[in-house]
Amino acid sequence: MVVVMEVGASENQIEAVIEQLNNHGFDVHRSSGSRQTVLGAIGVRPEFDQRHIRLLDGVAEVHRVTEPYKFASRAWKKDNTIVTVKGVDIGGEEIVVMAGPCAIEDEEQIDKTAAHVAKNGATFLRGGAFKPRSSPYSFQGLGLPGLKMMRGAADRHGLRVITEAMDISQIEVVYEYADIIQIGARNMQNFPLLKELGKIDKPVLLKRGLMATIEEWLMSAEYVMAEGNLDVVLCERGIRTFEPSTRNTLDLSAIPVVKAKSHLPVIVDPSHGIGIRNKVVPMARAAIAAGADGLLIETHPDPESAKSDGPQSLYFDQYSELMRQIRLIARAVDRSVNSILVA
Ligand code: PEP
Ligand code: MN
């Protein structure tokens, strides 16, 4: 941590800051120029709250030089993490596509979707059985029967399953049917839930919260990892900004930023990120160009009749066209699309 004192800070103020730093366990290196004094606080204290120092008289600025998270950081692990799920690597050279409806609605809907996305190169079937809806009057998901339908459809078409658990009480049942457990944007800072997920041996896909900074997002990953589960996949799904013309603002700049700070795979969900069907495809293309390790895409056999997120769900032909384009873009950035099932 670096503490920059104000121009003209008194000797008493400087000494008071040094004393506080020493009391908190830091060694201090002092360098005094003709106008300003800079204090280097040496010691690894990830939990230290900088405000203890920032509030002292005579302090101009405080900067952290090490990250407050450990297991999620690039400093701790230099090489990219690859999360392998039933033979599919997430975070390796190949781009991974997870596709399906927002919510599982019935046998026919989920089976038709699984067949279509598998044929076009997805390796995961997505879909919610427990849905975090803004309104308690909206469709809340089918629960356990939905999970069973989804598992059946995925198995028939050679896909893996990613689905959401919203609460600690749902972990057990979702664990049984899912290959990756999704944690939704609204739960990114549900710390008791994150801690429980840290104790299981199944990968977790952690969506970025609507209002979360990148550091907060990585701290949430740290919650899972600190409990022992290192298989975390990050998912950028748009953040809330002042711009009302899209559902969210898809922060693609987060991809290279997170990749520098962390070794974890980063995938992008342009469906929730922009929320408008005909604008999902360009954002998906941009995500791959920007270095995303995969995509989470909503598609539905009949989006007009979907019980949730129909307006952002791709028609099947749009999905096929997206996959064609993604293969081309992947090549341009020295990658390929995992296409186990594509001839
Ligand atoms: C979803 O993936 O269906 C979902 C609810 O996403 P989010 O948590 O990003 O809103
Ligand atoms: Mn959705």
Question: Helices, strands, pairings?
Answer:
Elements: E1 2-5, H1 11-23, E2 27-32, E3 37-42, H2 51-54, E4 59-63, E5 83-85, E6 88-90, E7 94-100, H3 107-119, E8 124-126, H4 144-156, E9 160-164, H5 168-177, E10 180-183, H6 191-197, E11 204-207, H7 214-226, E12 232-236, H8 254-261, E13 266-268, H9 270-274, H10 277-289, E14 294-298, H11 316-332, E15 336-337
Task: Describe what you observe in this structure.
The structure is a single chain. 44% of the residues are buried. It is elongated, with a radius of gyration of 23 Å. It folds into two domains: 62 residues, Phospho-2-dehydro-3-deoxyheptonate aldolase, domain 1 (Alpha-Beta Plaits, 2-Layer Sandwich); 255 residues, Alpha-Beta Barrel (TIM Barrel). Helix 6 crosses helix 7 and helix 10 packs parallel to helix 11. With 343 residues, the chain is an alpha/beta fold. The strands form three sheets. Strands 7-8-9-10-11-12-13-14 form an eight-stranded parallel beta barrel, surrounded by six helices. Strands 2-3-1-4 form a four-stranded antiparallel β-sheet, covered by helices on one side. The protein has a two-stranded antiparallel ribbon with strand order 5-6. The longest helix has 17 residues. Phosphoenolpyruvate (PEP) binds next to loops.
